[in-house]
Specification:
The protein has 354 residues and is of the alpha/beta class. It contains 12 helices and 12 strands. Strand 8, helix 11 and strand 9 form a beta-alpha-beta unit.
Protein backbone atom coordinates (compact mmCIF):
# COMPACT_ATOMS: atom_id res chain seq x y z
CA UNK A 1 0.00 0.00 0.00
CA UNK A 2 1.53 3.35 -1.02
CA UNK A 3 2.46 5.80 1.72
CA UNK A 4 2.59 9.58 1.93
CA UNK A 5 6.37 9.30 1.48
CA UNK A 6 5.82 7.44 -1.79
CA UNK A 7 3.54 10.25 -2.98
CA UNK A 8 6.16 12.84 -2.00
CA UNK A 9 8.91 11.03 -3.95
CA UNK A 10 6.69 10.62 -7.03
CA UNK A 11 5.68 14.29 -6.99
CA UNK A 12 9.19 15.55 -6.18
CA UNK A 13 8.08 17.38 -3.05
CA UNK A 14 8.43 16.99 0.70
CA UNK A 15 6.12 14.90 2.86
CA UNK A 16 5.08 18.14 4.55
CA UNK A 17 3.89 19.54 1.21
CA UNK A 18 1.81 16.42 0.57
CA UNK A 19 0.30 16.86 4.04
CA UNK A 20 -0.56 20.50 3.33
CA UNK A 21 -2.30 19.53 0.08
CA UNK A 22 -4.31 16.76 1.74
CA UNK A 23 -5.22 18.68 4.88
CA UNK A 24 -5.48 22.17 3.36
CA UNK A 25 -3.38 23.49 6.25
CA UNK A 26 -1.27 25.86 4.14
CA UNK A 27 -1.53 27.34 0.63
CA UNK A 28 0.41 25.37 -2.00
CA UNK A 29 1.34 26.61 -5.49
CA UNK A 30 -1.16 25.37 -8.09
CA UNK A 31 1.39 23.40 -10.15
CA UNK A 32 2.80 21.79 -7.01
CA UNK A 33 -0.66 20.90 -5.77
CA UNK A 34 -1.50 19.35 -9.14
CA UNK A 35 1.71 17.30 -9.08
CA UNK A 36 0.74 15.90 -5.67
CA UNK A 37 -2.79 15.11 -6.82
CA UNK A 38 -1.45 13.40 -9.94
CA UNK A 39 0.89 11.28 -7.83
CA UNK A 40 -1.96 10.32 -5.51
CA UNK A 41 -4.04 9.23 -8.51
CA UNK A 42 -1.19 7.33 -10.15
CA UNK A 43 -0.18 5.46 -7.00
CA UNK A 44 -3.71 4.89 -5.73
CA UNK A 45 -2.85 6.44 -2.38
CA UNK A 46 -5.66 6.51 0.21
CA UNK A 47 -5.26 9.13 2.96
CA UNK A 48 -5.51 8.02 6.59
CA UNK A 49 -8.68 9.78 7.70
CA UNK A 50 -7.96 9.32 11.39
CA UNK A 51 -4.45 10.75 11.07
CA UNK A 52 -5.80 13.67 9.03
CA UNK A 53 -8.39 14.46 11.70
CA UNK A 54 -5.66 14.60 14.34
CA UNK A 55 -3.82 17.20 12.25
CA UNK A 56 -6.78 19.35 11.28
CA UNK A 57 -9.19 18.72 14.22
CA UNK A 58 -11.73 17.97 11.50
CA UNK A 59 -13.11 14.60 10.41
CA UNK A 60 -14.79 15.91 7.25
CA UNK A 61 -17.98 14.22 8.40
CA UNK A 62 -21.45 15.62 9.07
CA UNK A 63 -24.14 14.16 11.32
CA UNK A 64 -27.80 14.12 10.25
CA UNK A 65 -30.58 13.49 12.78
CA UNK A 66 -34.06 13.34 11.25
CA UNK A 67 -37.10 11.34 12.32
CA UNK A 68 -39.23 9.11 10.12
CA UNK A 69 -36.56 8.48 7.52
CA UNK A 70 -39.12 6.13 5.89
CA UNK A 71 -41.31 9.18 5.15
CA UNK A 72 -40.82 10.12 1.45
CA UNK A 73 -40.41 13.78 2.44
CA UNK A 74 -37.48 13.10 4.75
CA UNK A 75 -36.10 10.50 2.34
CA UNK A 76 -35.83 13.20 -0.32
CA UNK A 77 -34.27 15.59 2.20
CA UNK A 78 -31.73 12.86 2.99
CA UNK A 79 -30.94 12.51 -0.71
CA UNK A 80 -30.33 16.25 -0.95
CA UNK A 81 -28.08 16.21 2.12
CA UNK A 82 -26.11 13.19 0.93
CA UNK A 83 -25.50 14.58 -2.55
CA UNK A 84 -24.29 17.92 -1.18
CA UNK A 85 -22.10 16.29 1.46
CA UNK A 86 -20.39 14.05 -1.09
CA UNK A 87 -19.97 16.96 -3.50
CA UNK A 88 -17.95 18.80 -0.86
CA UNK A 89 -15.84 15.78 0.09
CA UNK A 90 -17.56 14.96 3.38
CA UNK A 91 -19.00 11.74 4.73
CA UNK A 92 -22.44 11.43 6.36
CA UNK A 93 -23.53 9.77 9.61
CA UNK A 94 -27.30 9.34 10.06
CA UNK A 95 -29.48 8.79 13.14
CA UNK A 96 -33.25 8.68 13.69
CA UNK A 97 -34.40 10.49 16.88
CA UNK A 98 -37.95 9.07 16.44
CA UNK A 99 -39.40 12.46 17.40
CA UNK A 100 -38.66 11.58 21.03
CA UNK A 101 -36.95 14.40 22.96
CA UNK A 102 -34.87 12.11 25.21
CA UNK A 103 -33.79 9.85 22.36
CA UNK A 104 -33.09 12.95 20.27
CA UNK A 105 -30.53 14.25 22.76
CA UNK A 106 -28.91 10.80 23.01
CA UNK A 107 -28.44 10.31 19.27
CA UNK A 108 -27.12 13.86 18.87
CA UNK A 109 -24.62 13.18 21.67
CA UNK A 110 -23.56 9.94 19.95
CA UNK A 111 -23.03 11.76 16.66
CA UNK A 112 -21.07 14.47 18.44
CA UNK A 113 -18.91 11.84 20.16
CA UNK A 114 -18.10 10.46 16.73
CA UNK A 115 -16.42 13.84 16.19
CA UNK A 116 -18.57 15.01 13.30
CA UNK A 117 -17.64 18.52 12.22
CA UNK A 118 -21.23 19.70 12.46
CA UNK A 119 -24.83 18.54 12.77
CA UNK A 120 -28.05 18.93 10.80
CA UNK A 121 -31.07 18.23 13.01
CA UNK A 122 -34.85 18.26 12.50
CA UNK A 123 -35.90 19.09 16.09
CA UNK A 124 -38.67 17.31 17.99
CA UNK A 125 -41.70 19.05 19.46
CA UNK A 126 -39.75 19.57 22.71
CA UNK A 127 -36.16 20.36 21.73
CA UNK A 128 -35.04 21.91 25.03
CA UNK A 129 -32.57 19.14 25.90
CA UNK A 130 -31.25 19.12 22.33
CA UNK A 131 -30.68 22.87 22.24
CA UNK A 132 -29.07 22.85 25.69
CA UNK A 133 -26.62 20.14 24.58
CA UNK A 134 -25.72 21.90 21.33
CA UNK A 135 -25.25 25.20 23.12
CA UNK A 136 -23.25 23.76 26.03
CA UNK A 137 -20.81 21.97 23.74
CA UNK A 138 -20.74 24.72 21.09
CA UNK A 139 -21.62 22.22 18.35
CA UNK A 140 -21.95 23.82 14.89
CA UNK A 141 -25.51 22.93 13.91
CA UNK A 142 -28.28 23.72 11.45
CA UNK A 143 -31.90 23.13 12.44
CA UNK A 144 -33.77 21.67 9.49
CA UNK A 145 -37.46 21.81 8.50
CA UNK A 146 -38.69 22.72 11.99
CA UNK A 147 -37.63 26.10 13.30
CA UNK A 148 -37.21 27.34 16.85
CA UNK A 149 -38.31 30.81 17.92
CA UNK A 150 -36.16 32.37 20.59
CA UNK A 151 -37.04 35.32 22.88
CA UNK A 152 -37.84 38.48 20.95
CA UNK A 153 -34.74 40.28 22.21
CA UNK A 154 -32.36 37.30 21.88
CA UNK A 155 -30.73 36.03 18.71
CA UNK A 156 -30.98 32.28 18.28
CA UNK A 157 -27.46 30.77 18.18
CA UNK A 158 -28.31 28.25 15.46
CA UNK A 159 -28.82 28.53 11.71
CA UNK A 160 -32.15 27.23 10.42
CA UNK A 161 -33.35 26.02 7.03
CA UNK A 162 -37.02 25.36 6.32
CA UNK A 163 -39.79 25.73 3.77
CA UNK A 164 -42.48 28.38 3.72
CA UNK A 165 -45.54 27.00 5.50
CA UNK A 166 -48.08 29.72 6.25
CA UNK A 167 -48.60 31.23 2.80
CA UNK A 168 -48.79 27.91 0.91
CA UNK A 169 -51.32 26.48 3.38
CA UNK A 170 -53.39 29.65 3.07
CA UNK A 171 -53.31 29.14 -0.70
CA UNK A 172 -54.90 25.68 -0.41
CA UNK A 173 -57.66 26.90 1.92
CA UNK A 174 -58.44 30.00 -0.14
CA UNK A 175 -58.64 27.84 -3.25
CA UNK A 176 -61.19 25.55 -1.60
CA UNK A 177 -63.14 28.56 -0.33
CA UNK A 178 -63.21 29.93 -3.85
CA UNK A 179 -64.78 26.67 -5.01
CA UNK A 180 -67.71 27.30 -2.68
CA UNK A 181 -66.73 25.25 0.36
CA UNK A 182 -67.81 26.79 3.66
CA UNK A 183 -66.73 24.03 6.05
CA UNK A 184 -63.10 23.13 5.44
CA UNK A 185 -61.53 20.64 7.83
CA UNK A 186 -57.83 20.48 8.71
CA UNK A 187 -55.99 17.34 9.77
CA UNK A 188 -53.13 19.07 11.59
CA UNK A 189 -49.68 17.79 12.50
CA UNK A 190 -48.04 16.93 15.78
CA UNK A 191 -48.69 19.67 18.36
CA UNK A 192 -45.54 21.57 19.31
CA UNK A 193 -43.81 21.36 15.94
CA UNK A 194 -43.23 24.70 14.23
CA UNK A 195 -44.50 23.23 10.95
CA UNK A 196 -47.79 22.37 12.67
CA UNK A 197 -48.20 25.83 14.16
CA UNK A 198 -47.35 27.62 10.93
CA UNK A 199 -49.70 25.47 8.85
CA UNK A 200 -52.55 26.00 11.30
CA UNK A 201 -51.82 29.74 11.10
CA UNK A 202 -51.94 29.46 7.30
CA UNK A 203 -55.25 27.60 7.51
CA UNK A 204 -56.73 30.43 9.57
CA UNK A 205 -55.23 33.01 7.22
CA UNK A 206 -56.81 31.22 4.26
CA UNK A 207 -60.21 31.14 5.94
CA UNK A 208 -60.02 34.86 6.60
CA UNK A 209 -59.04 35.56 2.98
CA UNK A 210 -62.05 33.50 1.83
CA UNK A 211 -64.36 35.34 4.24
CA UNK A 212 -64.95 32.22 6.36
CA UNK A 213 -65.11 32.00 10.16
CA UNK A 214 -62.71 29.84 12.13
CA UNK A 215 -64.33 26.82 13.83
CA UNK A 216 -62.00 24.99 16.22
CA UNK A 217 -64.04 21.79 15.78
CA UNK A 218 -62.80 21.62 12.19
CA UNK A 219 -59.13 21.36 13.26
CA UNK A 220 -58.11 17.94 14.59
CA UNK A 221 -54.51 16.81 15.15
CA UNK A 222 -53.41 13.78 13.15
CA UNK A 223 -50.03 13.87 14.94
CA UNK A 224 -48.13 13.85 11.62
CA UNK A 225 -48.73 10.11 11.06
CA UNK A 226 -51.07 7.98 9.00
CA UNK A 227 -52.92 6.24 11.84
CA UNK A 228 -53.47 9.50 13.70
CA UNK A 229 -54.82 11.13 10.55
CA UNK A 230 -57.21 8.24 9.99
CA UNK A 231 -58.68 8.80 13.46
CA UNK A 232 -58.74 12.59 13.00
CA UNK A 233 -60.55 12.30 9.67
CA UNK A 234 -63.11 9.92 11.21
CA UNK A 235 -63.70 12.48 13.97
CA UNK A 236 -64.24 15.27 11.44
CA UNK A 237 -66.67 13.14 9.44
CA UNK A 238 -68.64 12.37 12.62
CA UNK A 239 -69.42 16.04 13.30
CA UNK A 240 -73.07 17.06 13.13
CA UNK A 241 -72.04 19.32 10.25
CA UNK A 242 -69.02 17.56 8.70
CA UNK A 243 -66.62 19.37 6.37
CA UNK A 244 -67.22 19.35 2.64
CA UNK A 245 -63.49 19.79 2.01
CA UNK A 246 -60.43 18.48 3.80
CA UNK A 247 -56.81 19.62 4.01
CA UNK A 248 -54.11 17.30 5.33
CA UNK A 249 -50.94 18.84 6.73
CA UNK A 250 -48.38 16.28 5.50
CA UNK A 251 -48.10 13.34 3.13
CA UNK A 252 -48.31 10.57 5.75
CA UNK A 253 -51.58 12.04 7.02
CA UNK A 254 -52.94 12.19 3.48
CA UNK A 255 -52.71 8.39 3.33
CA UNK A 256 -54.54 8.07 6.65
CA UNK A 257 -57.25 10.48 5.55
CA UNK A 258 -57.81 8.54 2.34
CA UNK A 259 -58.18 5.32 4.36
CA UNK A 260 -60.83 6.95 6.56
CA UNK A 261 -62.72 8.29 3.55
CA UNK A 262 -62.65 4.87 1.89
CA UNK A 263 -63.93 3.25 5.10
CA UNK A 264 -66.93 5.62 4.96
CA UNK A 265 -67.48 4.88 1.28
CA UNK A 266 -66.82 8.52 0.38
CA UNK A 267 -65.49 9.53 -3.02
CA UNK A 268 -62.99 12.34 -3.70
CA UNK A 269 -63.93 14.93 -4.90
CA UNK A 270 -67.60 13.98 -5.52
CA UNK A 271 -68.43 13.57 -1.82
CA UNK A 272 -65.60 15.58 -0.28
CA UNK A 273 -62.76 17.64 -1.73
CA UNK A 274 -59.21 16.91 -0.61
CA UNK A 275 -55.99 18.93 -0.74
CA UNK A 276 -52.69 18.08 0.91
CA UNK A 277 -49.58 19.82 2.16
CA UNK A 278 -46.68 17.75 0.78
CA UNK A 279 -46.58 16.40 -2.71
CA UNK A 280 -45.11 12.95 -3.22
CA UNK A 281 -44.10 10.76 -6.12
CA UNK A 282 -47.36 8.88 -6.49
CA UNK A 283 -49.74 11.82 -5.82
CA UNK A 284 -50.06 12.21 -9.57
CA UNK A 285 -51.13 8.56 -9.89
CA UNK A 286 -54.17 8.72 -7.60
CA UNK A 287 -57.60 8.98 -9.13
CA UNK A 288 -58.42 11.79 -8.76
CA UNK A 289 -54.96 13.32 -8.89
CA UNK A 290 -54.09 15.12 -5.65
CA UNK A 291 -53.94 18.90 -5.48
CA UNK A 292 -50.98 19.59 -3.24
CA UNK A 293 -48.32 21.91 -1.93
CA UNK A 294 -44.92 20.61 -3.06
CA UNK A 295 -42.03 21.32 -0.73
CA UNK A 296 -38.50 21.65 -2.17
CA UNK A 297 -37.27 18.71 -0.08
CA UNK A 298 -34.00 17.93 -1.86
CA UNK A 299 -33.17 21.62 -2.07
CA UNK A 300 -33.80 21.94 1.68
CA UNK A 301 -31.27 19.18 2.36
CA UNK A 302 -28.68 20.71 0.05
CA UNK A 303 -29.24 24.19 1.50
CA UNK A 304 -28.79 22.88 5.05
CA UNK A 305 -25.39 21.47 4.07
CA UNK A 306 -24.39 24.74 2.40
CA UNK A 307 -25.37 26.77 5.46
CA UNK A 308 -23.52 24.38 7.78
CA UNK A 309 -20.34 24.54 5.70
CA UNK A 310 -20.55 28.33 5.78
CA UNK A 311 -20.89 28.13 9.56
CA UNK A 312 -17.79 25.91 9.77
CA UNK A 313 -15.85 28.37 7.62
CA UNK A 314 -17.06 31.43 9.57
CA UNK A 315 -17.94 30.36 13.13
CA UNK A 316 -18.58 33.91 14.36
CA UNK A 317 -21.03 35.12 11.76
CA UNK A 318 -24.63 35.81 12.94
CA UNK A 319 -27.06 32.90 12.73
CA UNK A 320 -29.82 33.16 10.15
CA UNK A 321 -33.02 31.43 9.08
CA UNK A 322 -33.37 30.50 5.40
CA UNK A 323 -36.83 29.76 4.01
CA UNK A 324 -37.40 28.20 0.60
CA UNK A 325 -40.64 28.66 -1.40
CA UNK A 326 -43.14 25.86 -2.03
CA UNK A 327 -45.15 25.15 -5.17
CA UNK A 328 -48.94 24.94 -5.54
CA UNK A 329 -49.61 21.86 -7.71
CA UNK A 330 -53.14 22.15 -9.09
CA UNK A 331 -54.71 18.79 -9.91
CA UNK A 332 -58.27 17.45 -9.57
CA UNK A 333 -58.88 16.19 -6.00
CA UNK A 334 -60.05 19.69 -5.08
CA UNK A 335 -62.96 19.32 -7.52
CA UNK A 336 -61.51 21.28 -10.42
CA UNK A 337 -61.53 19.94 -13.95
CA UNK A 338 -58.32 18.54 -15.38
CA UNK A 339 -56.13 21.38 -16.59
CA UNK A 340 -52.57 21.60 -17.75
CA UNK A 341 -51.28 24.15 -15.28
CA UNK A 342 -47.70 24.85 -14.30
CA UNK A 343 -46.80 24.71 -10.62
CA UNK A 344 -47.01 28.07 -8.86
CA UNK A 345 -44.29 28.82 -6.31
CA UNK A 346 -45.76 32.07 -5.02
CA UNK A 347 -47.28 30.48 -1.91
CA UNK A 348 -49.85 33.30 -1.78
CA UNK A 349 -53.60 33.16 -2.39
CA UNK A 350 -54.37 33.77 -6.05
CA UNK A 351 -57.19 36.24 -6.67
CA UNK A 352 -58.00 34.36 -9.88
CA UNK A 353 -58.70 31.07 -8.05
CA UNK A 354 -60.54 28.85 -8.61
Amino acid sequence: MPTMADVARSAGVSVATVSHVLNETRPVLPHTRQAVLDAIEELGYTPNTLARSLVTSRTRSIGLAVSAISNPYFTEILQGVEAAVLEHGYSLLIADPHDDPEHERKVVQLLHERRVDGLIVAPSADPRALLAYLDRHAVPAVLLDRVIDGPADTALPFDQVCAENTGPMARLVTHLGGLGHRRIGLVAGLPGLSTTGERVAGYRQGLAAAGLPFDEDLVVPGNSESSGAEQATAALLSLAAPPTALVTANNAMTIGALRALRARGLSVPDDIALCCFDDFAWADLFSPRLTAIAQPSRELGAEAVRVLLERLASPDRPARTVRLPCAFVHRTSCGCQEEDRAADTSGSPDPEDP
